[in-house]
Specification:
Number of strands: 11
Distance between the termini: 28 Å
CATH topology of the largest domain: Rossmann fold
GO molecular function, one term: glyoxylate reductase (NADPH) activity
Strand order of the largest sheet: 7-6-8-9-10-11
Structural class: alpha/beta
Bound molecules: NADPH dihydro-nicotinamide-adenine-dinucleotide phosphate
InterPro entries: D-isomer_2-hydroxyacid_DH (IPR050223), D-isomer_2_OHA_DH_cat_dom (IPR006139), D-isomer_DH_CS1 (IPR029752), D-isomer_DH_NAD-bd (IPR006140), NAD(P)-bd_dom_sf (IPR036291)
Strand content: 5-15%
Domain D-isomer specific 2-hydroxyacid dehydrogenase catalytic: 45-311
Domain D-isomer specific 2-hydroxyacid dehydrogenase NAD-binding: 109-282
Helix content: 25-40%
Number of helices: 12
CATH class of the largest domain: Alpha Beta
GO cellular component, one term: cytosol
Shape: elongated
Length: 314
């Protein structure tokens, strides 16, 4: 008998098809009243498939699935999964680390280059006919050789640091603990890193421990010549403080892939030219999303065949 699996939120169509072929799959999103469905059928499910940037696995959902043995999440962020509840009940939690490092690092650089060299803004300038009308476009800021501060030097942070070598950038990083065996200097004080950096890239974990790590004090340390890039989670930045700093030009600009209340983006940011805004697409290439989907399937298959995960989050 195929294991009965609940799907929370929508996933890539190809992944949904494979899941439906391999398992007795039910999509919670198809229920008009999900809570009533869970109250009646929650005990049927041994597996939950979800996504890091979407539904996650919140406390109430885990509690509604009393026979749950495995969660397989599409993505690497764990901030929407109640890991403590899973641990307490011995539920295995699988995720998709590493396979997305390249694309998230590439997106960090896409944002950094764009906001520094003003490429999206210049594109709008050309499309508006302003070049053809004889106007000149202002100057950007140099990326090659500049100072890059990285907040969070985990799997993706290290990939970003290696990319920076190709731009001859001077790299330093901040995290709670120094990382052994890396060539870049650790800066124990986040504000000092911000003061030093021309570009500050945020790629820590999300969740309560990093909530509003980037606050007014850090933004003011970065200063009017400094740029902020966020490819981590919106919660890591005090978004109201960031909006104020940008509107008042207390920092030079920002490149943002993530926001505090997605898909809502503060209206003030839409009116600013020194901000590049992306709809949470840092890992969003065909190749990487396919590799993530495969890892979701591999985690489930390994769990049901051998009781282990390929990539265990906890
Ligand atoms: P890792 O777990 O490998 O790295 C996380 C890093 O954050 C570590 O260096 C850790 O160091 C640091 N960190 C954690 N807490 C703090 C803190 N309070 N202060 C300073 N540094 C901290 O994760 P990954 O590199 O794989 O991924 C990082 C995050 O990127 C994910 O958690 C996810 O939320 C986000 N992400 C976003 C994507 C997007 O689409 N925009 C796509 C993929 C990932 P230490 O513990 O020593 O402090």
């Amino acid at each position: 008998m195929k294991p009965r699996i609940l799907q929370a939120g929508r996933l890539l169509p190809a992944l949904e098809q494979r899941l439906a072929a391999d398992y007795d799959l039910h999509r919670l999103s198809e229920e008009a009243d999900p809570n009533a469905f869970l109250a009646r059928h929650g005990a049927e499910f041994t597996g939950l498939v979800t996504s890091a940037g979407g539904a996650g696995a919140p406390t109430a959902l885990i509690a509604a699935l009393p026979q749950l043995r495995v969660i397989s999440s599409f993505g690497v962020g764990l901030d929407k999964i109640d890991l403590a509840a899973a641990r307490e009940r011995g539920i295995a939690v699988g995720y998709t680390p590493d396979v997305l490092n390249d694309c998230v690092a590439d997106t960090a650089f896409a944002l950094l280059l764009d906001v520094a060299r003003r490429t999206a803004e210049a594109d709008r300038f050309v499309r508006a006919g302003r070049w053809a009308a004889g106007q000149s476009f202002g100057l950007g800021r140099k990326v090659s050789g500049a100072r890059l501060g990285i907040v969070g030097l985990g799997r993706i942070g290290q990939t970003i640091a290696r990319r920076a070598g190709g731009f001859d950038m001077d790299v330093r990083y901040h995290s709670r603990r120094p990382v052994a065996g890396v060539p870049w200097p650790h800066e124990p004080a986040l504000r000092e890193l911000a003061r030093w950096a021309d570009y500050l890239v945020i790629i820590t974990a999300g969740g309560v421990e990093t909530r509003h790590l980037i606050d007014t004090a850090v933004l003011d340390a970065l200063g009017p010549r400094g740029f902020l890039i966020n490819v981590a989670r919106g919660s890591v930045i005090d978004e109201a403080a960031l909006v104020r700093a940008l509107v008042e030009r207390r920092i030079a600009g920002a490149g943002l892939d993530v926001f505090e209340r997605e898909p809502q983006v503060p209206a003030e940011l839409l009116a600013l030219d020194n901000v590049v805004l992306l709809p949470h697409i840092a890992s969003g290439t065909e190749e990487t999303r396919q590799a993530m989907a495969q890892r979701v399937l591999d985690n489930l298959a390994a769990f049901f065949a051998e009781g282990r995960l390929v990539s265990a989050a906890a």
